[in-house]
């Protein structure tokens, strides 16, 4: 999707990816096959680039730091990637910047996590510091007795763990923030994300919250991004609590699933915006050009060919629904709960796009929280 946006602006994209048939290989200008974590590979790759950017934060940040010292233009900066790729370090950074967060603490022994349970109560959210996404690396302990098994499920304390106080939120929100090289920022409208088993299934734009909450969420998101360094698009995931607090959950230093709808629903997609930001071009208009949009992730419902068949059934139904756009990622392997694509529906009202999603999923409910499965 980043390559598509760049091609429309006459900008060449060279990608580094270890998979020969990766989704972007057919739409980029050049594909270098190699690891994100191999210093020699990254250094040689950087020689081909006027600006080096990332679409995944799990990269060799030490090499990026060395490249920056040698004059390579990395956007966002290596210091930002270093903060974001370790979620505990991320929490400490935003805490120092007085960004509202759920309470958290590092744990490295059974006794320390038991003390955390005594301090924060149960249920207790236990998280890996690194390589945690799409529900991986997170686990919930309902009581003290579950702590050993939860720790083991995350790879043990040697993996690097921390805990968070359980946040009884009423909605999960997200704000896409773009910052250019001159540090100017623009924010996209606040959206609501609906998760199931820690994986985003639905994004509603704009979020159905008061103007006061929208302003607060945007303020928290913008403050968080201004505390980091470098240009690009950032996603700020937030919790809205029962007493109308907005707490930062985590930040992604790249275009994000919660901003996919912008391709159809906004004047400037998050992908075009990322290109504009890292190159120092004027930032585009982030406002919505459609009154309402809803994005539905196409997740694998079965393994292999059976999963592809079910996904194609869903796509066939989507093509009959007005205002619907299908994005298929061309990932070569189908696995259960793997994101394989997304479907965006735009329309004149939130009611209309929810109704169209119900038709797509062959459900009667207008509540996307109840419409989170691909119907066989």
UniProtKB/TrEMBL annotation:
Task: Give UniProt keywords alphabetically.
Answer: ATP-binding, Decarboxylase, Lyase, Nucleotide-binding, Purine biosynthesis
Which Pfam families does the entry mention?
ATP-grasp (PF02222), PurK_C (PF17769), RS_preATP-grasp-like (PF22660)
Please verify whether the record's keywords include Lyase.
yes
Instruction: Kindly list the GO molecular function terms attached to this UniProt entry.
Output: ATP binding; metal ion binding; phosphoribosylaminoimidazole carboxylase activity
Q: Which reaction does it catalyse?
A: 5-amino-1-(5-phospho-D-ribosyl)imidazole-4-carboxylate + H(+) = 5-amino-1-(5-phospho-beta-D-ribosyl)imidazole + CO2
Enzyme type, top EC level: lyase
Which InterPro entries is this protein grouped with? ATP-grasp, ATP-grasp_carboxylate-amine, ATP_grasp_subdomain_1, PreATP-grasp_dom_sf, PurK, PurK_C, PurT/PurK_preATP-grasp, Rudment_hybrid_motif
GO BP of this protein: 'de novo' IMP biosynthetic process
Q: In which pathway does it act?
A: Purine metabolism; IMP biosynthesis via de novo pathway; 5-amino-1-(5-phospho-D-ribosyl)imidazole-4-carboxylate from 5-amino-1-(5-phospho-D-ribosyl)imidazole (carboxylase route): step 1/1
The residues that cross the membrane are: none
Q: Residue limits of the ATP-grasp domain?
A: 91-279
Q: What PROSITE patterns does this protein's entry cite?
A: ATP_GRASP
Would the keyword Endoplasmic reticulum turn up in this protein's UniProt record? no
Enzyme Commission numbers on file: 4.1.1.21
Q: Which family does it belong to?
A: In the C-terminal section; belongs to the AIR carboxylase family. Class I subfamily.
Name the chain's protein.
Answer: phosphoribosylaminoimidazole carboxylase
Native source organism of the sequence: Zea mays (Maize)
